[in-house]
Amino acid sequence: NGPSWPYATSMTLVGLANLLNNQTQSFVDSRDFITLFSIYARSLYKKDANGILTPWIDENLNPFTGDWISRTMLSTRHQKPEERGKDYNHSLFCDLVINGLIGIRPSEEEELDVNPLIPEGYWDYFCLDNLTYRGKTICVLYDKTGDKYKRGAGLSIFINGTKTAISPTLTKISCKL
User: Fold this and answer.
1) What are the phi and psi torsion angles at 67 (to 5°)?
2) Cα Rg, the chain, nearest whole Å
3) How far apart, in whole angstroms, are the C-alpha atoms of residue 103 and residue 31?
4) Which of 19, 56, 64, 124 allows an S-S link to 144, with CB 3.0 to 4.6 Å?
5) Residues 132 and 146: beta-carbon distance below 8 Å
6) CB-based contacts of 162: which residues, under 8 Å, 6+ apart?
7) What is the mean pLDDT of the chain?
8) What average pLDDT does the segment 12-28 reach?
């Protein structure tokens, strides 16, 4: 019943990802995560007077109109909108993609856990490549059929270019570094 704050929304989605990774429960699942994340991602635009959308993140969003509230308030007063809340993201969007959607879960051990929060059948492929983790170069690749990337079907983890773990489905996999 009020504004959507991107930073608070990001923290809530991080909490949901942590719940799905660390707790056994039957109330929410990866479909809920991807639905909420997709709504959040679609909100990160501003619409100009001609209806053109530009990638944008600001301080607070009207959830009913999609307007960035501080910009709208200033423009109705015929003032040039300030950039006071622009780039309010605090890098959490990237964290949500890397740690949530793709599922790279940092560990205190010398291992890498990957637990994608992408429901089976939602995407046919994705790749997160050249991610540095504990001095290693990581690639997490999912190719439903193996035809997109030509590296085999399923979910694969590559460490320094070597395929280290594979699963035929989008499920949690771990490997030693």
Assistant:
1) -80, 145
2) 19
3) 14
4) 124
5) no
6) none
7) 89
8) 96
Show Cβ contacts of residue 97 under 8 Å, excluding neighbours closer than 6 positions: 128
pLDDT tens digits along 124-175: 999 999 999 999 999 999 999 999 999 999 999 999 999 999 999 999 999 9
Q: Position 70: which residue type?
A: S
What Cα–Cα distance (Å) separates residue 160 from each residue in 84, 138, 139, 149?
Answer: 42, 6, 8, 17
Q: 71: buried, middle or exposed (CB in 10 Å: 19+, 13-18, 0-12)? A: buried
CB 32 within 8 A of CB 26: no
HEC profile of the chain: CCCECHHHHHHHHHHHHHHHHHCCCCCCCHHHHHHHHHHHHHCCEEECCCCCEEECCCCCECCCCCCEHHHHHHHHCCCCCCCCCCCCCCCHHHHHHHHHHCCEECCCCCEEEECCCCCCCCCCEEEEEEEEECCEEEEEEEECCCCCCCCCCEEEEEECCEEEEEECCCCCEEEEC
Distance CA 4, CA 12 (A): 12
Cα–Cα distance for residue pair 157/165, rounded to 1 Å: 5
Hey, what are 9's tokens?
Answer: 């929304």
